[in-house]
Specification:
The structure is a homodimer.
Chain A: E1 2-4, H1 7-19, E2 24-29, H2 35-47, E3 50-55, H3 75-84, E4 89-91, H4 95-98, E5 105-109, H5 117-120, H6 124-139, E6 143-147, H7 151-163, E7 169-173, H8 193-198, H9 200-214, H10 220-232, E8 237-245, E9 261-268, E10 271-278
Parallel strand pairs in A: 1-4, 2-3, 2-6, 3-4, 6-7
Antiparallel strand pairs in A: 8-9, 9-10
C-alpha cells in the first residue's frame, strides 16, 4: 500500500493505473475509520482493480465554531486497517497541498446547500463539493463510494457530478449501525457512556417514522411530532431538525411517499449527530366491497 | 467532421478517442468564428491527434440586459470553415442539454470575478467557469486553447483548472487584429463603419501605454491618463475601465512591470469591446559613472 501526501506523486500513480487500464474505486474519508468506512472499502475492492482511500480532514467543510481541531485523527491505525483490506493507495494530503496560496474557486450546490444540515452548517456543503471535485479530478475514479448516513452529502455529490458532467459513478451504501442501532460515526467518539445511550433516540425515532408510514400515517407533521416525542425522552438531546424530504431536491414533503427520506440532526450534549432512513411504504391491500 | 448536439453521443465519441489514446485539443467558442478562433483551431490541429471545437452561446455568461439573443450566430458557415480546417468534432449542444432541469451548481472564481470586466458584467465569469468545466469534463482534452483578447477569461480558467486539479493544459494564443489593429471579435459585427473606425482607439491607447513604459514611464496613473486622452478623441467611445494589473491576481498595480497587463473595456456606441496588451519593459542600460 502506497501512502501519498503530494498531489504530484498521486498524479503519477494514477497515470500508471490509467495506462494499465485499471479501474479505480475511490473512498473519500476524513479518517478515524470505522466499520461504515470499511463497508465502502470492501465494496470498492470487490468492484475495481485498484482502490484509493483519501484521508483528509477538510478544513473548508468545518464552520468557525465547529470541531475541526478536535476531530478524531487516528492515521496510523487507519493505515494499518486499510493495508489489511488490500487498499492500493492512501492519499493523505496536507491542507496547503489541497488549497495552495491563491486558491479561490468555490463550487456551490445552490439549491441544496441551505437545506437540512446546511441551515446550521453554512458553507459546509460547498466545502464538501470542492474537495470531492478535486479528489475526482486527481484520482479519476470509475466509482466513488459514500455512506447513506451522510444523506445530504450524497445528494449534493450526485448533483455536482451530474451538473458538471464529472463522469464518476456514485454508489451509496447502507448506514452501518452498532448492535443498538446507533449509526456509526467518527463523532461517536465524543460521546460519554450516558450520551451514547441517549443517542439511540435518533434511530428509535426513525424506526417509529418507518412504522407509522407502514400503518398508513403519511402525514409528515404527525410523523415529526411522534419522532419529537421519542427524542424528547432523552435528557441530553436537542433537536436541530427532523424533516421528511424528496431524495433529490431535499424539499420537505407534506405526505410521505416510498423513496422519501426521513432525516434528522440532534445534538447529544455538545455532539451533533445525524441519521436518516429511506421510507418504504407497502401498498395497502385493496379490500373488496363484496 | 462529426457535428454532435447530444451529451451522450459526445461521450461515446470521446470514449473512442480515449481508447485509441488519441490526444485531444479543444477550442471552446460561441461560434461566429473569425481568424482569432481559427488561429486556435490551427494550433490545436498541429499539436493534437484530434480537435474538438465547441460552439455554444452560453446563456449563463450573459447578463439580463446583455446581447444573448442578438449575439451573432453563423452556424452553417462556422461548420464549413471548421470542416476545411480538418476539425474532427463540432459540439453544438442546446441550452437544455447543458443545463437540464434541476441544474444548480455554481463554480465561482471568488477573488477574480468582481474585477475588471466582472464589475460591469456580474455573474459573467461564473457562467464562463461552469461551462468550461463542463466542456473539460465531457471532452477531457489534453490541451484547451483560448485567445489572449479575453484576458480575464484566461486568468479565470487557469485559476479554476489549477484550483480544481482539472488536469487540462491551457494555452493562450496572441490576439489576432485586423490591418488597423482592431482586435478581432464576433461583436465587431455590431459596429457601423464610423464606429469601427472609432474602435481603433482601444489598440491605439494600448500601444501608447506600451511605448510609455519603454520610455521609463511606469506610473500607472499617468499611463491611464494618457490612454484616456486618446480614447476621448473618439466621439462614440465611453470608457468602462482602463487598468494595469498583475496577470494572475488581477490586482491593480501602481508601478508597471514586465508581464503586467494593460486591459481596457470601452463602449463604442452600444457595443462593449475589450482589448489588452502584456507589457514588456526593456531594461534600461546602466550608465557608467566614469
Amino acid at each position: 500500500m502506497q501512502v501519498i501526501t503530494a498531489v504530484q506523486a498521486l498524479k503519477q500513480y494514477i497515470r500508471v493505473l490509467k495506462e494499465r487500464r485499471s479501474t479505480i474505486g475511490l473512498v473519500p474519508t476524513m479518517g478515524a475509520l470505522h466499520e461504515g468506512h470499511l463497508s465502502l472499502v470492501r465494496q470498492a475492492k470487490k468492484e475495481n482493480d485498484a482502490v484509493v482511500v483519501s484521508i483528509f480532514v477538510n478544513p473548508l467543510q468545518f464552520g468557525k465554531n465547529e470541531d475541526f481541531s478536535r476531530y478524531p485523527r487516528t492515521f496510523d491505525n487507519d493505515c494499518n486497517i486499510l493495508s489489511q483490506e488490500g487498499v492500493n493507495i492512501v492519499f493523505n494530503p496536507g491542507a496547503s497541498e489541497m488549497y495552495p496560496d491563491g486558491f479561490c474557486t468555490a463550487v456551490i450546490p445552490e439549491s441544496l446547500e441551505d437545506k437540512l444540515c446546511g441551515k446550521s452548517r453554512p458553507g459546509h456543503f460547498r466545502g464538501v463539493a470542492v474537495v470531492v471535485l478535486k479528489l475526482f479530478n486527481l484520482i479519476q475514479p470509475d466509482v466513488a463510494y459514500f455512506g447513506q448516513k451522510d444523506f445530504q452529502q450524497t445528494v449534493v455529490i450526485r448533483r455536482i457530478v451530474s451538473d458538471l458532467n464529472a463522469g464518476v459513478t456514485i454508489k451509496v451504501l447502507p448506514t452501518i449501525r452498532d448492535q443498538n442501532g446507533l449509526a456509526l460515526s467518527s463523532r461517536n467518539a465524543y460521546l460519554s457512556e450516558t450520551e451514547r445511550n441517549d443517542a439511540l433516540c435518533l434511530y428509535q425515532a426513525l424506526i417509529r417514522a418507518q412504522s407509522l408510514v407502514k400503518t398508513g400515517i403519511v402525514n409528515t407533521e404527525e410523523m415529526v411530532r411522534e419522532m419529537e416525542k421519542i427524542i424528547s425522552q432523552s435528557k441530553s438531546a436537542t433537536i436541530d431538525y427532523i424533516s421528511v424530504v424528496n431524495p433529490e431536491t431535499l424539499e420537505s414533503v407534506q405526505k410521505a411517499q416510498s423513496g422519501d427520506v426521513v432525516a434528522l440532526a440532534v445534538r447529544i450534549g455538545k455532539t451533533r449527530l445525524i441519521d436518516n432512513v429511506i421510507l418504504t411504504i407497502y401498498e395497502q391491500p385493496i379490500l373488496s366491497d363484496t
